Amino acid sequence: MDETTDSALPCRVWWDEENQVAHNDWLPGSVCDLAAARRVTAAVSAFGRGPVPVLVDMRFLAKADRAAREHFTSPEAQATAVALLVASAVSKVVANFVISVQRMPVPVRMFTDEASATTWLREQRE
Q1: Of 69, 87, 97, 114, whose CB count within 10 A is highest?
Q2: CA–CA distance, 95 with 83 (Å, rounded to integer)
Q3: What CATH number is given to the structural domain containing 52?
Q4: 107 phi, psi to nearest 5 deg
Q5: What sequence ranges are listed for the domain DUF7793 (predicted)?
């Protein structure tokens, strides 16, 4: 498992070798602005695997500002598919906003179960 060591990141970024999926696990109460979004995508790119499916665990994310959401939905993010893992009302609102308002250049789906999200991301690779 590859993992970023950037302590400035508001989330844990790691590579799941078995499923060939990048993970962004947002820390409790974290807020994502454009600078954080760019650091997260740079950390995923640093794994050296090119564009990849990404599982975003946003169950504890407090807020993602507009510039960050736009960054994550742009080609610069280099995701081939995005699974949004949610639980709280706040995370569901943010995920629904991303899915319904932002134009995604890749498939994106919201999940409440990590295993289902991982299975769906693996299917997107085929």
Answers
A1: 69
A2: 10
A3: 3.30.750
A4: -65, 140
A5: 18-123
Q: Which token pair is 22?
A: 């990048």
Structurally, the chain folds into a number of domains equal to 1
- Contact at 8 Å (CB) between 65 and 32? yes
Token pair 């742009």: residue: 74
Q: Is 4 within a domain?
A: no
Beta-carbon contacts of residue 93 (< 8 Å; ≥ 6 apart): none
pTM of this structure: 0.84
Phi/psi at 59 (5° precision): -65, -25
Alpha carbon 80 to its chain centroid, in Å, reads 11
pLDDT tens-digit series, residues 95-116: 666 666 556 678 888 899 999 9
Beta-ladder partners of 31? 63
pLDDT per position as a tens digit, 2-43: 766 567 788 999 999 999 999 999 999 999 999 999 999 999
8 A C-beta contact, residue 83 and residue 121: yes
